[in-house]
């Protein structure tokens, strides 16, 4: 097992594999940022998948109750990868990319003083990385905190939505659609 200091030397080689294989859960803030940058309709940015299509059993609070069942919102793939992956295997929305992309491949843990106590690389794809780079632990901590805060804020919205949908079902009405969910999140005009 590699040490924290070894893994802090992670350097992306630009293979693009992380944009081809893994499915990336999104928050409403991610979708808003991408839509503002690209002008793309949020409906075209996202896809909703069930728990069989993604390993998120440890995050049930990310699943929205929709008419077709519980679904998680992910970044849409087209042609074998992220719809924003260029022909050169580079991100075409790099400045607006989701926070999950920004923290990838790091899975850090910190103590109360903000020091890294554990660092793992997420093994979601065949990453052709090198260990000759430099990564600032403070930057990783700040990004991790930002990522965690965005997920917590989003999950509160998911919980409010799910309560509304359960109330609809109790009153004999069907849960609403994915489009209604995007409108609830304030992503549709």
Strands, helices and their partners?
Blueprint: H1 4-7, H2 28-38, H3 42-45, E1 46-49, E2 64-66, E3 69-75, E4 77-78, E5 81-82, H4 99-103, E6 106-110, E7 116-121, H5 137-170, H6 178-184
Antiparallel strand pairs: 1-3, 2-3, 4-5, 6-7
Please provide a brief summary of the model.
With 189 residues, the chain is α+β, with helices and mostly antiparallel strands. The chain has helices spanning 4-7, 28-38, 42-45, 99-103, 137-170, 178-184, and strands at 46-49, 64-66, 69-75, 77-78, 81-82, 106-110, 116-121.
Order of helices and strands: HHHEEEEEHEEHH
As a whole number of angstroms, the C-alpha radius of gyration is 18 Å
The biggest beta sheet reads:
3 strands, antiparallel
Number of helices: 6
Structural class: alpha+beta
The amount of helix comes to 25-40%
What is the count of distinct domains?
1
Strand content: 15-25%
Shape by Cα distribution: globular
Biggest sheet strand order reads 1-3-2
CA(first)-CA(last) distance: 49 Å
Low confidence ranges = none
Mean pLDDT rating: 94
Number of strands: 7
